[in-house]
Each structure stands twice: as structure tokens, then as C-alpha cells.
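Late entry, written up from scratch paper. The run itself happened at the end of the previous shift, but nothing got recorded in the book at the time, so transcribing now.
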Amino acid sequence: MSDPDVSLRILALRSTFSTIEAVLNPAALRADIASLSEQATQPDLWDDVENAQQITSALSHRQSELTQIEEVGARLADLDVLVEMANEEADNASAGEVLQELKELEAELSQMEIQTLLDGEFDASPAIITIRAGAGGVDAADFAEMLLRMYVRWAESHKFSARVLDTSYAEEAGIKSATIQVDGPYAFGTLSVEAGTHRLVRMSPFNSAGKRQTSFAAVEVVPLMEESTVIDIPEGDMRVDVFRSSGPGGQSVNTTDSAVRITHLPSGIVVSCQNEKSQIQNRAAALRVLKSRLLLVAKEEEAAKKKEIAGTITASWGDQMRSYVLAPYQMVKDLRSEYEVNNPSAVFDGDIDGFLQAGIRWRKST
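Output as recorded:
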């Protein structure tokens, strides 16, 4: 196991880890955890449910970050022992164990390195993802549902919370639109590079002639603002509609007019929520999403950013940021970072870390 390439890889890993450790600052994380833990033990914590949820969520995130740093540091320290054992035993199994550990650590440190690039104002916030079917008819609606499943599966694989807040089903198959909330460390910063138009090329299962079909879906990603974030919306600027939740099956949420749709009249932004059984809960959730979107718009206007805000993505020819090709060949390619893979099935099953990392690095370099 005296391969010089292995030694160089280990040196590179330790150098990368030192940089990451300096940025993430374990000492500061421990101080935050101590402060949040003290707040979490207060007897009146749950008198204010929303504040309690924020404290416990922040505590969980900090603990997760610190645990990851400590575990990776310990594994790096153990590498020397693994290499020494491999040299003593001089067999393929021991050498293979070292190479496997190197591969896993390189992947984990690459993900941690990305986190150090997420220094935007809202990057640490939960993410609100809205997916809308675009041009392409039934195939577009089916594609939108495939993307919804992709993001939910990605969140589950990272042990992030993923809540479907609202779904509008298409008549034949798939969905017209869906909104999900993803809550985990740096969820918005990580997923923000998914915003844009996604294109699917495949042999359509809805076309009796078996022709190749191109369809589109638009993905919008905004940060979920903290409840303490101040943004006032006059009652006269909102129209609130209640309706019966829709969806397949006889769910209990379908039995009352509990779903809520809020239209912000000045901007035309519409949000809805039907996930909860209570109309009051749905109204609160929809209002929070609306405030998040309005605050993001205000921040973008204030900074005079050129990028278009949510809802302006055309989801049609000419502006796609990623292509998913299932026929005549198999490929998923991001047209901004040029990152591509030849396994669309894995991508649709939530394996999008490579695209997220490439997208974040691309954005940082532009």
C-alpha cells in the first residue's frame, strides 16, 4: 500500500478538511449549540410554538454540522492506521478497504466544501420549491411529477424534511403544479441552483404513434423566511379563497373546505396550501410562503439583480438550463456547468448531488 497516489490523495483530503474546518468553525458551532440548548430547556419554550420550532430546528442543524465535522476528522485521523494495516497485511482486501474509505471521504468532503461556498443571506434557510408543467401537454405534466418525486427522494436521502404543501393534479396524468418545503442545513442555498427550465426528451408513453416527445417544466426555488422577518401585507392587498382539497383517493382533507389560496393583488403572486386539515393552519402556511416570495422579490429589486424572479420562467424552447434525454440515448446534462451523467434513472431517483455541486461552483465562478 505504498502507492504514492494514495499518499497524495490523503494529503489533499487533509488540506481540504483544514480549509473547511476553518470556515465552518467548530468552536463557534459548539457555542451556538450551548446557547440553543439552554433556550430549548426553558420550561415555557412551547408557549410560543413557532419560536420553539425555530429553536429546535436551528439546534438540530448546528448539531448535525458539528457531528459531520467531528466524524470526518476522526475518519481522516484513522486513515494512517488503515494504511499501516494494509501495508502489514499486504493483501488486496486491505488495500481495497483503504481505497474505498478514500473514495467515500473525497465525496463527503466535496459536499462539505460546497457548504463553505453557501454564504448568501438566505442560503441557510429552508427551501420552497414550486414545480410547474410547461409546454408539452400530458408529457409535461408527467415530467413535472417526475421532478417532484426527484426532489422528495433527494431530500429523503439526505434525511431532510420534505413536505408537499400543495398539488394541482392534471386531468390525464401527472401534475399541473406542486409546492414543497424542504428543511435541512443550507437547503435553499443548495437547491437554489435548480431554479429554471428543465427539458425532457423521450419516447412518449402517452403517444400511440410512439414518437419522440419534448416537454418542459419550470422550477422555482425561494427561501422560507423566519417568522420574525418583518414584512407587512395589508389585508386589502390580498384575496383569500377557501376550497376543498383535491387529490386521488378519499383523504380526510377532502371532506371540508380547508384548503386556502391567497392572491397578492399588486404583484399577482398566488400561493395555496392544502396539506393541513385545518383551514387556519393552511392559511398560516400559505401566508408564510407568500411573505417569503415577496421578501425575495424586494431583495432582488433592492439589489437590482438582472435574473428573473419566480413565475417568469417560460418553460419552453430556448431557455432550458438542464436536459434529461431518455431517447435516442441516455443522458442528463446541465447546460450551464456542462456537468452530465449517463444514468437518468438514478437522477430521477434523487441522485442529483453532482448537479447541485457543479451548479454551485458554476454560480460562484460567474
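The two ends are 41 Å apart (CA to CA).
(Scratch paper discarded after transcription.)
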